[in-house]
Amino acid sequence: MNELTIVIATIVLAPIVGGLLFGIDRRITARLQGRYGPPILQPFYDFFKLLGKESIVVSKMQLVWIYCYLILMIASLLCLILKADFLVLVFLLGFAGVSLVLGGFSTKSPYSHFGANRELLQILAYEPVLLLLAIGIYAKNGTFLISAITSREEPLLFSLWPLFLAVLYVLTIKMRKSPFDIATSHHAHQEIVKGITTEFSGPFLAIYELAEWYEIVLVLGVIVLFWANPLWVGLVIAFAAFLLELVVDNIAARMTARWMVRLSWSIGLILGIVNIAYLYITKGVF
Amino acid sequence: MTDWMMAIAILLPVVSGLLILAIRNYFARGVIVVVTALVLIANSLLFATKGPLTYTPPPGFDWALLITILDYAILITYIIIGFKYRNWLVLIFSATQLIPLLYFEFIMKAHVHPEPAFVVDHLAIVMTLIISIIGSLICVYAIRYMRDHEEHLHLEKSRQSRFLFWLVLFLGAMNALVFANNLHWMYFFWEVTTLCCYMLIAHDKTKIALQNAARALWMNATGGTAFILGIIYLYATQGGSSALSVQNIIGGNVHGAAMLLPVALLCYTGCTKAAQMPFQSWLLGAMVAPTPVSALLHSSTMVKAGVYMVLRFAPAYAGTYLSTAIAVVGAFTFFGASALAISQTTGKRVLAYSTIANLGLIIACAGINTPLSIAAAILLIIFHAISKGLLFLCAGAIEHQIWSREIEDMEGLAAKAPLITLITAAGMLSMFLPPFGMLLAKWVALEAAYRVPLAAILFILASSLTIVFWTKWLGRLLEVVPKLGWPLEKLSPSYSVPLWTLFIAVFVVGIGIGPIYQSFIASATSNVISGLSAIVASNWSDIVLASSGAKAGAAILGAFPVWSLYVVLGIALLLPMLFFGLKPTQLRQVYLCGEQTGGVDTDEWLAEADVKTKFILGGYYFQGTVGEKAFNPWVNTVAILLLAIMIGCGVIVR
Fold it and tell me: Fewest beta carbons less than 10 Å away: which of A72, B54, B223, B400?
């Protein structure tokens, strides 16, 4: 398959997978809460309904940033699919996050600002973990290239399991699940209206939803990297992680942003640092 | 030819400075500054095309004697300043420079003149390009800025000439400093920059300005002391004129255990001038000076002399504990300053902390001391000079729009001054996001950092913190009420020419990094460490977003990999900005639980008892966690310990 085909296939298929995952999420969550739940395809129905709505906005920059968020999320996902540099992937993902935050800041709306500030703290919580993962990958492979991960026989999970644990809560943050559904939430347990997405509506909210679909595929894709050979084991692990998040979401209460940053900067970083220190001491430098 | 080039680079600023002092007319002064700027820029480009060269002034005039006399003149000026303002620290640290210098010249009777006196290699060329181009642009900007500044202060007697004199002189001193091969001369130019810095910070003569200038002086004087002690130690243990040749020291011709301590002292000197923790307070204090001073100190002069010093001597400490210690010292400053930047409420202080942080990163890269990390350090010097020069000029322009430096006062600037906001936003994004040069350099640095894992981990933490403080600030600028049609503000050409030039430079240098890398940086890196460009180039191509096919093409750093990221940026940001059109009917007011009053673009609501109230949104600053009060004692203690360890590593051999 040539690369253009891969690129197009990714751009087309990733949101379908992402949307289905969100559909499954809503169904399972409903069952856990003793409800019947919507059809699996409900996210798509919502998406097309949003697209058909009247386009109303509060500022032009808001549109620019939300569109930027989508494009950079896709670029970041392409980095993964094309097996490019993992660091570049993390940096692009960081830029995407920054775009969303700036979209929230681009208007004088208190709820949007609350959400944007919290989203920024979420970035502060997960960014170092992803970068530590990059260093961990470097410690194993001597390069940040994803192609080097997929071509190696021994799964990363064996030597990077502490980082795997840390990445699991990055997944929670990224999926906006309790206890970390702080900037905005799928459920109604928000006291800040709809947080960072308060001022997005109609087609622009649809763009946001679309970007979230790409994002979940991307983050689960990063988890797949922990067991890239054979690929199906990694996929099973990623799906199990996804299901785990749903359970955690339903048994945990939402925590504060500061608590999240503290947790991430203590336990998350210690897991990562110990992991890297161990690899450095046992393996040395390339 | 070489005679003239050297004379223009070093002496022209002196002559122009004196002319500016003599002619006290706004227009004539402007012409002199602009002409000097153009000649300096042309001259630096000439250096770039002619390539590396060495130079020793022809016999006939005793330059050495002149420099010695001026050396004492500067130190005596320090002492006078110390007495005048009764500042004991200034007095003590000028004495600790003067006494060793007297000892060196009269008791050791060292009259050594290693030849060549000046070596202009690729690294020096990169530096002189930065100094001459960005520094000159800042001088042009200062012409108009200082007039506005004095109008705002209602001064009776204009002091603009004095200001521009020191500003222009600074460029000459910096050029000489990076060219100097004679360590003793380098020390002299080092002191000239310290003096210029003092004079510029103290320019407004307010109590706080004088206080902060004195702090800058004594902190840099501790560095000067270490410098002269290093020289004496080198001369005492090695002897002969070759002991004081920079090229000899880094060329490995001066060997042995005795080498490491003086090099450690020189690195300490570099750290003081580069405002590494715990010396960050002098650079923060320098913020009281008019904005062109900050722009100059932060982008192309002064602090860059500090990192130049550490980078220059990198081969002399390669593979030692000292090298690792330097990496950790720099990385720790990168982390500490980035955290402190989050708590700052003043725009210029955020910029200052960001500078300190990035200088830390550069020094850490020098300490990691692999070809890749040295390349990263040089890239950082270039991109940081452009972006930070731009941001300071923006800060000055914003200040002259709203007459405030507070971030909270910049709220909604996008509607009041869209052009400056656009340029500022580009400057900020170019500091920490892909595909801009700073991030590219950071990426190269991380590639190299695993050799010192502690530094790598500090890099990671600092990078994450960097995202927070830039995004937070940019967010304040963008906070606007729903309204279409922002009228563009008018800018004087003295502002707009430097601003737009640097704005374009961010993109041109960023996109053209491939060719620029090949023609300058590769050789500049090999000036520091030889035989490496192949490694750098192959690593670089990893950034390629797509395709193994493209990778083959990019095996020797082609332009393509970086291009693809710029294309993504163009699609993501530029296209929607240009082509998203809005109709006034699409605008709605923000959600305020239905309590607004007035039209769509209102920011008023009905508060308690239906009283009309304007609502105010504030930023987060986390003073309790990373505020200076809470955080400084910790970071300063650790930083002092690290510095002590660094110098200790100079005593331990290998």
Answer: B54
- Complex-level ipTM: 0.94
Residues B627 and B598 in one domain: yes
Give the Cβ contact number of residue A154 at 10 Å.
10
pTM, entire model = 0.92
* A135–B456 C-beta distance less than 8 A: yes
Q: Hey, what are B356's tokens?
A: 């300190």
Yes or no: say if A49 and A266 are a contact pair by the CB < 8 Å rule: no
Q: Which residues in chain A touch residue B434, judged by CB atoms under 8 angstroms apart?
A: 88, 91-92, 95
Nearest by CB to B412, from A108, A113, A120: name it: A108
Whether B567 and B636 map to the same domain: the answer is: no
Q: Is residue B78 located within the same domain as residue B109?
A: yes
Q: Does B376 share its domain with B425? A: yes
- CB-based contact, B60 to chain A, within 8 Å: no
Q: Are residues B333 and B430 in the same domain?
A: yes
Residues B95 and B126 in one domain: no
Question: Which residue among B235, B257, B273 closes a domain?
Answer: B273
Element containing residue B527 per DSSP (H, E): helix B522-528
Split into its structural domains, chain B has a count of 4
Cα B49 to Cα A67, B43, B125, B526: the distances in Å are 43, 10, 10, 18
Domain boundaries, chain A: 3-283
Is the residue at B552 inside a domain?
yes
**Distance of alpha carbon A263 from alpha carbon A125, whole angstroms:** 8
What phi and psi, each to the nearest 5 degrees, are found at residue B53?
Answer: -155, 165
Structural domain including B558 reads 528-581
Cα separation, B652 vs B654, whole angstroms: 6
Question: Is B284 a domain residue?
Answer: no
Say which of B443, B478, B568 has its CB closest to residue A75.
Answer: B568
| B542 and A CB contact within 8 Å | yes
Task: Count the alpha carbons within 13 Å of A114 in the hemisphere toward its beta carbon.
Answer: 14
Together in a domain, B470 and B505? yes
pLDDT tens string for chain A (286 positions)? Answer: 677 888 899 999 999 999 999 999 999 999 998 999 999 999 999 999 999 998 888 888 888 999 999 999 999 999 899 888 888 899 999 999 999 999 999 988 888 998 999 999 999 999 999 999 999 998 888 888 888 888 888 888 888 999 999 999 899 998 888 888 888 877 766 567 788 888 888 899 999 999 999 999 999 999 999 998 888 999 999 999 999 999 998 888 888 888 899 988 999 899 999 999 998 888 766 5
